[in-house]
Predict the structure.
Amino acid sequence: AQSVTQLDSQVPVFEEAPVELRCNYSSSVSVYLFWYVQYPNQGLQLLLKYLSGSTLVKGINGFEAEFNKSQTSFHLRKPSVHISDTAEYFCAVSERDSSYKLIFGSGTRLLVRP
Amino acid sequence: DTAVSQTPKYLVTQMGNDKSIKCEQNLGHDTMYWYKQDSKKFLKIMFSYNNKELIINETVPNRFSPKSPDKAHLNLHINSLELGDSAVYFCASSPGFDGYTFGSGTRLTVV
């Protein structure tokens, strides 16, 4: 069964600094990978996804992620963060079967300080 | 137009009551889901329906019963509510492997 690990529960960073949020997954089959963002008291919004092709994926709000199959990782990066990026970020994996079930990591809270 | 809408947004109820949460999507997606987010923000899938057919039923107490009258609607009925049912419940839909669209959530508080 697949699983997702987000080792950092909280990442504090200063405004305009770069950030990397780490995500590792475990699965015995090929997977699709996703990053979602959740702002306070809101639902989840899709940031970016890896389905196939280029391992570097660009998403909304200046975020990007790189799929590394050998390290089973899908880390999220942004070169310069804003106060408005403060939110909870979730990595998720879906195995390439017919159920399209998304398994989420435990989330990383990105806290951007002025 | 909201793509995935849930009602109500907030629900406060007493232990032992029965309550329902409704979900509707206007995206034309075939598959809909219910997720539970606990107080530690952990998200866990509960159910999934594909074109009105139940395809995922995780280890969820029998007190929870999903109902899908058509592929645009997926409701969640909860009997005999317990304190531990307090959480945020999210509805989502997807066209397949392309990722989900989530509703804004229903915060259920059992007192």
The radius of gyration of chain A is 14 Å. Chain A has a mean pLDDT of 93. The longest strand of chain A covers residues 87-95. Chain A touches chain B through 24 residues (CB under 8 Å).
